[in-house]
Amino acid sequence: MNSLHVRPCYKDEDRKGKCLMAQVRILTHRGILWAAIVIIVMVSSMSVCSRAVDFFVSGHGRDTWSGKRAEPGENDGPFATIGRAQQAVRSIRKTDPQSAVRVTLRGGTYYLDSPLEFGPEDSGRQGSPIIYAAASGEEVVISGGRRFEGGKWGEVNGRKTWVIDIPEVREGRWNFRQLFVNSQRRPRTRVPKEGEYQIEALPDLKISNETWAEPVRRFVYSGTDIQRWHNLVDVEVVACCRWVDNRLPIQQVDPDKRIVTFERPSRFNLVELYHTKPSTYWVENVLEALEKPGQWYLDRPLDRLYYLPIGSQDMGKVEFVAPRLSQLVRIVGREDAPVRFVRFEGITFAHTEWPPPPDWAISSQAAADVPGAIFLTHASRSAIIQCSVEHVGTYAIELGAGCRDIEISHNRLTDLGGGGIKVGHDSERTTVANNEIVHAGRLFMSAVGIWVGHSAGNNIIHNHIQDLNYSGISVGWQWNFKPSKAVNNIIEYNHIHDLGHGLLSDMGGIYTLGVSPGTRLRYNLIHDVKARAYGGWGIYPDEGSSEILIEKNVVYRCSSSPFFAHINRKITVRNNIFAFGEQCQVQRAGATSGPEQEYAFLRNIVYYRQGQLVGYWNDQNRNFSFKSNLYWNASGAPITFSGKSWNDWQAAGQDADTLIADPLFLDPEHGEFRLKPDSPAAKIGFEPWDMSAVGPVKDSGNVPYEH
Prior knowledge:
This protein has four helices and 63 strands. The protein is mainly beta.
C-alpha cells in the first residue's frame, strides 16, 4: 500500500521552534504524483512555519543601510539605532507576518533621547517571536543617561575640585540626584557625616497613637543642625518613620526659632512607633559639606557639577554619566490588542531618574509609586531574559495591568534606586525566576526586592535577594479579610538576606497581605533581617493574610523574630526551621474575630539563645494551635512562652507531642541547619529537604520561555 508520512520537527532555541520542517517518506512507485502532494501539504503548512529574519544594530552603523549585515561594508551594514531596527521589524511583519525576527545589538552603549516604545504593531506570534538581543559575547548597554565631556579644575571649600558646566541645568531642562563615575554610584553630600540628627520637636502635632498617620510640614531642629546653606531649596531632609523614608526638600529655615519648613508634607507623623520622641533624620545635597573624595554637588543656579576626585584620578579618562530618562523601555498594549511575543535577551539597561510629584514624600508602603525602568502593560507571552538592570533611580522592571504570562528570568538587577521587580495590579501568571536582585533601595529605602500587588497565579522561584533596606518579597495589597486578587501565588526556593540594616521598621523577608487561597511559601532561606525600632521579621503574614501554607523554610538571625503573625486566618506553619531571633522566635499581634483559627504551628524546629520562644503583643483571643514541635534553647535558660512556663503552656492545651531537645544541626552558628543522623527531629515527623536547591539555578543553555 502506498503511503505518505509527514512529521513536524521543531528545531530552535524556542523549545517549540521557529520553523516547522517536514520529514517526508514516500513509499510509492509514482514518485512524481506523491512529490506534488508533498509540496501542496508543505505550502498549506506555512501558517505554522516561520522564516527567520535578522537585523543588526551597531554604533558604527547607518540608518540608511539595510541592517542585514553585522559588520559595516562599502555600501551596506547594520543600522545605527534601535528605533530604525524597530521600523524595519514592523515593515517585515506587515509583509511576512509569520517571520521570526531577531534584532542583534552589537557591543557598545546606546544613549536614548526618549524611551523605546513598543505597541501592538511590534508583536510577534506563537513560534515566531520578536527578539532584541545582545550579540554573543558583547556588552550592550541601553542608557537613559548622558555622558559628560570636558571639565576643569576649580576649588570648593578649600579643596581641589573637578568642575563641569551643564547649561541645561541652569535653563531648568534637567536636574539629577544621581551620578555614576566610572560605572560606580557616587554619593551626594550628607550631614551629619556619620549617624543621624534628632528632631527636637513637632510644633504642629500632639504625639499619640491616634496621630501616627498625620503628616507634618515642619519641625524644630537642635542647635545648628540645619543652616541657611547655599541654594537651600535644593537641600533635602531624609527622615525615616516606621516603614517609610521621607524625602523632604527644604522650603525655608527660621534660624531664630530653629524651625525648618518643607515644600511638601511628610508621610506619617515623623514619630517612631511606641516612642514618645520624634524621628531622626539626615540632610543631603549641602554644598558646604563637599569635603570627602568621591562626593559631588550639582549647583543648579550656576549650572555646575562639582566632584571631589578619589586619589590621583586622571580626570581626562574619568567617565561621568547622569540619568535623564525616567524609563528606558515601554511596552504598552491595549486591552483589546496586547503586545505579544516580544523578548529581550542579554542586554544591560542603565541610568534612570524619576522626579517625584510635587506633593510626594514617599509611598504609603514599598515605594509602590516608583516606576520601573522597563515597563509593560497589556502585554502577554513576552520575556526579559539574561539581562541586567543597573545604576537606576527606579525599580528595575514593572508589570502593569493586563500583563499575562510574562517571564522575567536569569537577570541581574543591581544598584537600584528603587526595588527589583513590580508585578502590578490586575496582572496574572508572571514567572519571576533565577534572578539576582541585590543592592537596592539606594534612593527609596522602602522599596522591596519583588513586589506583587493585586495579582494571581505568579511563580516567584529561585531568586537571590540581598542588601535592601526593607522587605525582600511582598505579596498582596489588601489589609483585611475582604476578597483579594492575590491568590495562588507560589514563593519557593528564594534566598533572601541582609535586609533592613537598622534603617526602617516593620518588615519581613517574605511579607504577605490579604486572603490568599492557594498561596504557598516553601523551601525559602531567609536570614539577617534587622529593623530600626521594631519588626525585623523573617516570614510576616500581615493583616488579612489567610489560607497560606508556610512550609519547609529556614529562617534565622532576625532582630525581632523569625516568624510573626498579625491578624490572620487559617494559616498553616509546618516543618520549618526558625532560629536565633533576638526578641523571640514566634510572635503574634492583633486579635482575629470569628471562629476560624489564626494559624496552626506544626512539626517545626525552633532553636535559639536569647529571648522568649513565643511572644505576643496582644495576649487576647489566642485562637491558634501548637503541636508536635521540637524546641531547644541553646543558652541553657528555661523555655518561656509569653512569660509563661513550659508547664503552664501545656496546661493551656498547647504543644502536645512536642519535644524539648537539641535537634543536632551540623553547624547552626554558621547557617548550616542540616541534621545529624541521630537527630530527634524524626520523632515529631519532621521531614528534611534539600536546602542546597535554594537560590538561582545555573542556566544550562537557557531554553527561553515559550507558551
